[in-house]
Structures are given as structure tokens and as C-alpha cells.
Design brief:
14 strands, alpha/beta, about 250 residues, seven-stranded mixed beta sheet, 8 helices
């Protein structure tokens, strides 16, 4: 199994793209602006999209994906997410006002997209890969994703602040090889981080202290212009972890 980072920034500009991860050739985790790095044939190959939450930087590419390839596909793209997240997408995105409802185009019997609820406690197996939602702590309904394969496991936090439930879920994954977790703000911006429920360096360092597993840890969702300062503070706060910033184009093989 191969995971390719198409976008991992907390914003845009100067080559930065927002969150989008590609699993092999057929699956996306989130659909931020990183999806725009795919060529048309790669877009056409996407069969499943797992959405961690409905904030725009994680879903903005989804309607454009469907609009670009829907008429050329033999089957609908399947969008997997928490039921609450699918409800937000239904009410606020695919609502015929902001964007057409492709669950009804060209008709309800042969749509370009279908929604598949993936609640906590459930898992979706696909070609020897398993996708499981993990509890996190954000300002809207949200989850992380546990991606399991024969070669080991990878966990992606999506957007979150400190979450004992997320740590407990990670500690229950004995073969966890990689943890991709966000840190959006410097310590000086703790008020913004707390209000928006994102990590800051000191909060992530405290979270890592509660882990019983020891994966490689990669930092995502760094706010543009503050990346170096955030990483400096993280390395100072958690010196034993060898933390590294996630990079667009980075590839993980499991």
C-alpha cells in the first residue's frame, strides 16, 4: 500500500496545498486543494473519498472532482464520512445553491456520487486495506482515520486539539508505524488554537507524552509563514520524538 501526500498545508500560497492524501491510485483521504495536483487520468481513477470533516480546506476539491469526471465513470464515486459530516455536506454544499447535488445527476438511479455513512465503531475494508474512523476533538463533527494494511498501520488525525479518546485509540494500534498529526499554531497563538480547537506545540508535546506506542510522527496543517517557527517550538517541547514536517509529494509505503 502506498500513501502519497498531495496537500498538507494549513493554507495556500507559494506551492502550498490543503489536505489531501492519496491511497494507492483509487482512494483519497480528504479533498482539499491538493487534489488539483492530480492529472485527469488520476482523477478518473478515484473511486472512494474518506472525509474527516466538512471544513472547506478538506472538501473544496470534492465537488470539482465529481464535475470533472462524473460523466465518464461507470460507477459513482463513494464518499465515506461520519453521518454528521455527510449531513453537513448535504445541507451546505451539495444543496443546489452552492453546488448541484450529484446524488441526483443525471438521476437518482445512476448518480455521479453516493454517500456511505462510516460511524465510529465501524470500519470499511477495501482491497486488503481497512479504513476506520478515530475520535478526535474539533469544533465540528470530525474524525481521524486509521489506515491498516498487511504492512502495518498509519493514523491521520485530521483536525484536532488534545483528545484523550484519540490517544486511547492510537494506543490500541500495536502495529502503528506512522502518525500524521496536526499542529496549526505557535504557542503565542494559543488563544486562537484553543478557540478553533487545533494543536499548538505545547499541547501536542503533552499529548505525545501519553502515547504508549512509538510511531514516527509527522506534523501536518502548519499555517503558512509560520511553519519553521512552529516546528522549532515542537522540537524544543518534544525533543525525544524526532518530529518532522509532512511534505507535499512525500510517499509512505506499508
Amino acid at each position: 500500500m502506498k500513501l502519497t501526500i498531495l496537500g498538507c498545508s494549513g493554507g495556500i500560497g507559494s506551492g502550498r496545498h490543503t489536505t489531501c492524501l492519496k491511497v494507492d491510485d483509487d482512494v483519497l483521504i480528504d479533498a482539499g486543494s491538493g487534489i488539483t495536483t492530480l492529472d485527469f487520468e488520476q482523477l478518473l481513477a478515484i473511486d472512494h473519498v474518506f472525509i474527516t470533516h466538512a471544513h472547506l480546506d478538506h472538501v473544496l476539491g470534492l465537488p470539482l472532482l465529481l464535475d470533472s469526471v462524473g460523466d465518464l465513470r461507470a460507477t459513482p464515486v463513494t464518499v465515506h464520512a461520519l453521518p454528521e459530516v455527510l449531513e453537513v455536506l448535504s445541507t451546505h454544499l451539495f444543496n443546489w445553491h452552492l453546488w448541484p447535488d450529484f446524488r441526483e445527476i443525471p438521476n437518482a438511479e445512476a448518480p455521479w456520487v453516493r454517500f456511505a455513512p462510516l460511524p465510529f465503531g465501524a470500519a470499511f475494508a477495501l482491497k486488503e486495506r481497512t479504513f476506520t474512523p478515530l475520535p478526535v476533538n474539533h469544533v465540528v463533527p470530525a474524525c481521524g482515520i486509521h489506515l491498516a494494511s498487511a504492512g502495518g498501520s498509519l493514523a491521520f488525525s485530521g483536525d484536532t486539539t488534545r483528545s484523550p479518546a484519540f490517544v486511547a485509540a492510537l494506543n490500541a494500534i500495536p502495529d502503528l508505524r506512522h502518525l500524521i498529526i496536526e499542529t496549526s499554531f505557535e504557542n503565542a497563538l494559543i488563544d486562537i488554537a484553543q478557540a478553533s480547537k487545533h494543536h499548538w506545540p505545547d499541547s501536542l508535546a503533552a499529548e505525545l507524552e501519553t502515547l504508549n506506542v512509538r510511531p514516527e510522527v509527522w506534523i501536518t496543517h502548519l499555517k503558512p509563514g509560520n511553519e519553521a517557527a512552529i516546528m522549532d517550538e515542537l522540537r524544543a517541547a518534544a525533543p525525544g520524538w524526532g518530529l518532522a514536517a509532512l511534505q507535499q509529494g512525500q510517499v509512505f509505503e506499508l
